[in-house]
Design a protein that fits this description.
Elements lengths: L2 H27 L4 H53 L6 H10 L4 E6 L14 H13 L4 E4 L6 E9 L2 E8 H4 L5 H40 L14 H49 L6 H22 L7 E4 H14 L3 E8 L2 E4 L1 H18 L2 E8 L3 E8 L33 H11 L3 E6 L5 E8 L1
Parallel strand pairs: 6-8
Antiparallel strand pairs: 1-4, 2-3, 3-4, 5-7, 8-9, 9-11, 10-11
Length: 461
């Protein structure tokens, strides 16, 4: 491929690239809400239609009516000039003035002199000036001067009749110009505003059920209770979607209840067996040969409790208020007991709306994991209008990047057991992510500026 062909192809691709950039820019600028977009779908065609009507129909109507009126006034002026030429001695001037005033509704004056004022600058958008000048030039064919500017109700016209005689004419503006055309525009715009208001009211009624359904789905996704006043409303399609959501929610809740009931039964049976083991070991007395068996029973008890807690996910807890400062103070006290350094900062509102016990366990698992393997831990909380972000940094050994997704799997263990919680079951980070996702957020891991691991918890505020 030659250099010229390469250059030509680049030139051919440039308009397409520019169009794509414009489309991306327009998408970023356009509103994303359904209600706003629906309003634009109604307003934009209405504005375009009115613009076309105003430009095509009104322009032609305005010009045609103004041309007819100016033609009639010019014809009257031409008749007056013919009368003046018929009586050049001026004997009938008074009668001509009376006829013009009474019959033609024109105020005229026949003056001596042959000088006209200098021509005024022609306004670009003054349709009366152009049409009236064209009619006088076409019908009278004499030197003239007109004044159509200003807000006066009169239009002044001066015509040089002969070498020493000038005709001054004052005509009403509404006799030469279609001045009431704006009434149609007012009616058109007013009717459009009324129709637009009615459309907005009906549109709000159609959008409200969709917003209610979205709010209910969002609340259910965050593990919160669905609004009590939620019921399928609106159009048939929206009603079917709302009914399908309610059925889906009931099936999910029923499945969760069945799972919890099953786990409760399994927990009861397993705890009964473990209790028998403990009782038999206690009756056996202190025997060094049984220390290993006691340790195994304790580990089984700990693993059972951890698994049941992970499976339940504490989803039955209601949403309530929690102060981050109180939670972080508890972590600082725990760090002092283990001779570790822990600092915390809070940016924004201290009080948050979460499931208090579950959220405390979420942050507690992450902080306990950091304190187990690091000597210094930093907690940074940012509470904005939309998101709550909590970042936990430590100077521990960290977790390899290839294993950061695996540590969230239940019972997954690293060589350093970095993902273990305080019970040693390997469920600490799995429970943390499960709780974060039940709040509509997530937990991610990355490298910390302190040299260890950074855990970021981000949930909707």
């Amino acid at each position: 491929m030659t250099a010229f062909e390469t250059f030509r192809r680049e030139i051919e691709r440039t308009p397409l690239a520019g169009w794509r950039s414009f489309v991306k820019w327009l998408r970023r600028r356009l509103p994303t809400g359904l209600y706003t977009r629906s309003l634009l779908i109604i307003i934009i065609p209405m504005v375009l239609l009115q613009s076309v009507v105003a430009f095509v129909f009104m322009e032609r109507h305005w010009q045609l009516v103004t041309e007819r009126l100016s033609m009639a006034v010019t014809r009257d002026i031409a008749a007056i000039i013919d009368l003046i030429d018929t009586f050049p001695d001026g004997s009938a001037n008074a009668e001509i003035v009376r006829i013009a005033r009474d019959r033609m509704n024109l105020n005229i004056a026949i003056e001596k002199g042959n000088e006209l004022p200098p021509p005024q600058p022609k306004p670009f958008f003054n349709i009366l000036d152009h049409i009236l000048s064209a009619q006088i030039t076409k019908q009278i064919r004499l030197p003239f001067w007109i004044d159509t500017l200003g807000d006066s109700d009169l239009v002044e016209i001066r015509i040089l009749v002969d070498q020493d005689k000038t005709l001054r004419v004052y005509a009403r503006r509404n006799h030469t110009y279609a001045s009431n055309t704006h009434i149609f525009l007012v009616w058109m715009v007013g009717a459009s505003l009324v129709l637009l208001t009615i459309s907005i009211l009906f549109l709000r009624g159609q959008i409200r059920p969709i917003l209610s359904l979205a709010h209910a789905a969002e609340s259910f996704g965050k593990g919160q209770k669905m609004p009590e006043d939620f019921a399928p409303r609106g159009a048939d399609e929206v009603r079917r979607a709302g009914l399908a959501f309610m059925l889906m929610r009931e099936r999910i809740e029923r499945q969760m209840e069945q799972r919890t009931a099953m786990l409760t039964g399994v927990s009861h049976d397993l705890r009964t067996i473990l209790t028998r083991f403990k009782l038999q070991l206690a009756l056996a007395g202190k025997n060094p040969d049984l220390d290993g068996l006691n340790k195994d029973v304790e580990d089984m008890q700990s693993m059972l409790e951890g698994y049941l807690s992970f499976a339940r996910g504490e989803a039955e807890e209601d949403v309530g208020h929690l102060r981050l400062s109180n939670l972080f103070d508890k972590f600082e006290m725990e760090a002092e007991l283990h001779n570790k350094e822990l600092t915390s900062t809070i940016e924004g509102e201290d009080e948050i709306m979460v499931r208090p016990n579950a959220f405390s366990r979420l942050i507690g698992n992450i902080v306990s994991n950091a304190l187990r393997y690091a000597g210094k831990v930093q907690i940074q909380a940012r509470h904005s209008a939309k998101w709550l972000t909590i970042v936990v940094d430590d100077d521990g050994p960290g977790i390899p990047e290839r294993s950061r997704d695996d540590v969230f799997k239940p019972f997954f263990r690293l060589d350093e057991a970095r993902n273990l919680d305080s019970s040693g079951t390997g469920l600490g980070l799995a429970i943390a992510r499960d709780i974060a996702r039940s709040h509509g957020g997530n937990v991610t891991l990355s490298d910390s500026p302190l040299g260890g691991l950074r855990a970021t918890v981000r949930i909707p505020a």
